[in-house]
Amino acid sequence: MPIRINGQRIEIATSRLSAVLEGPELLELRNARGAVLAQRGCGKHSPPVELRFVDGEKVGVRAGAPTRVVSLGERLAHVHVADENGDVTLRLLIDDQDRLVVEPSAQTIRRGLCAVGWRIPGIARRLRLVAPFFQGCCQELIHPLVAGKFWEWPCQWEAGFVVLQGRRDGFSVATYDHLNVPKAVEIGCKDGAGSVTFHALANGPATDSVAVGSLRWIIDAHKGDWTVPAGMYREWLHGFVGADHLKGLRPEWTGDIRLALQWCGTDPSVLDAVARAIEPRRVLIHLATWRSDPYDVNYPEYRASREGKAFMARHRLSAVFVDQTLCAWNADNALVENISMAEGVVALTRELTELDGLPAIGGEGWNEMSMRDQTVAEAHLFDSYHQNCPRFDELDPVPVGHFLYADLCRTMGYANISGDTPDSVLRLDVHERLGALPSLTVHKPADVLKPNPAVRRVLDRAKA
Fold first, then answer.
1. In which band, very low, low, confident or very high, does the pLDDT at 67 lie, cut at 50, 70 and 90?
2. Which of 187, 361, 397, 456 could be joined to 451 by an S-S link, Cβ 3.0–4.6 Å?
3. If you average pLDDT over every residue of the chain, what do you get?
């Protein structure tokens, strides 16, 4: 039998992995060759299921809580835990693709329940985390850049899967989520790194919430590199969003873009200099200072300044830009007009694509929701929006986002990309490794006519 039960012990076997649980707690996970992928260590350890409340309290399901394991067939079992802090159910299933599915849910009599998390402990040290955080990274689980952090979807955790990757194999956890349920992934725990906890979040406002769950976490082992499970996720994602249809809506001129000018001012001499270096039709201009008001002040007033009017009269306006990252954080996961925050961002950008004369949408932020109707996106670097975060030079960037949806939406650099400081040079390098369009911030004509080495490299890439 694929799922065998002996008291509270559950043994699960698929063609690619095996797992052993004691009640809701994962004891070990192995691939088909018997190599350990994850294994709970000895001694004190964190609880397998965690409840989170709106006041910030985190409560683990205690060891020894009354637990009942019920077989519902050869490929389906339920684990029921009656804890004093809440009742937890873990649904275990082997699906029709021979993958292990874990679906936690929780109910309490205490209001304010905002998340239920299920933990995979003791991940083998040979495995590194490959995750769509800030376009993609590959780090040891214990590295300070990722360890101990709570990554919320979709603005930080940009697509709903992670890969634990070794030299030639590994395993992945994904949620092929058709409902856009709020979720998060947490790396490490209070008693040390080396674990990953997957959280289903409640729709807000969560002050009266007493139940959360209904999100399936699909676990599978693979041979090969991280692109194997990521490719499976990409195939599902493209089918779900109708990628072929969306590609057909992109204007043809966007395929000719080779250089993005970020935070471009209204000085025409800068563009004259750029035009001497590369064909103007191949340049995308991010014009942020065209309004009569200062940047990010007095929205939603959109009155062009005299300089902005003159600039736009000279150069064709072909796209509109929306900072969807700000929209994404404003609703506290609440349903507004019967749609979620993430779905609202998609609805906003989709409506903009229907405006006459503005066929391309650009935006700040890049994830599996925003990419659907955006043609280009300003991509944030790893926790380093304007300045490099501590240990940014230890980042191992992996182009996960580019692999998933660059054929739908290309990225361009964001901020501090003039190439005139060591930090700026590093940022340009990371953008390149993540697959972004060659991008620059140019302040004066000499920046292009007499470029520094980093700017020269970007311009050479753009003309290649």
1. very high
2. 456
3. 91
Which among 196, 198, 118 has a CA at the least distance from the CA of 164?
196
The phi-psi region of residue 152 (left if phi > 0; otherwise alpha if psi is between -120 and 50; otherwise beta) is: beta
* CA 65 – CA 259 distance, rounded (Å): 60
Nearest to 10 by CA among 70, 99, 84, 97: 70
Provide the CATH topology of domain 243-463: TIM Barrel (3.20.20)
Distances in Å between the alpha carbon of 135 and those of 154, 162, 249?
A: 11, 12, 24
Q: Output the CA torsion sign for 329, 104, 207, 205.
A: positive
Strands 217-223 and 169-174: antiparallel
The pLDDT of residue 271 is above 90: no
- Please choose, from the candidates 259, 187, 167, the residue with its C-alpha nearest in 3D space to the C-alpha of residue 457: 259
422 burial type by CB count under 10 A (0-12 exposed, 13-18 middle, 19+ buried): exposed
CATH number of 3-240: 2.70.98.30
Q: What is the pTM of this model?
A: 0.94
Neighbours of 385 (CB within 10 A): 15
Q: Which of 141, 113, 121, 116 lies closest to 39 in space, CA to CA?
A: 121
Segments making up each domain of the chain, as ranges: 3-240, 243-463
16: Cβ–Cβ under 8 A, 6 or more apart, which residues? Answer: 31, 32, 98, 99, 220, 221, 222
Do 461 and 432 contact (CB within 8 A), yes or no? Answer: yes
Per-residue pLDDT at 363 exceeds 90:
no
H/E run at residue 457: helix 453-463
C-alpha to C-alpha distance for 79 and 91, rounded to whole angstroms: 6
Q: Which residues contact 366 (CB under 8 A, 6 or more apart)?
A: 135, 158, 374, 377, 378, 379, 380, 401, 409, 411
Q: Quick check: 318 pLDDT over 90? A: no
Angle at 352 between CA 349 and CA 357, to 5 degrees: 145
Residue 81 DSSP one-character state: E
**322 has a pLDDT exceeding 80:** no
Joined together, the tokens standing for residue 407 give 């054929």
pLDDT digit string, tens, across residues 129-172 = 999 999 999 999 999 999 999 999 998 999 999 999 999 999 99
pLDDT classification of 173: cutoffs 50, 70, 90: very high
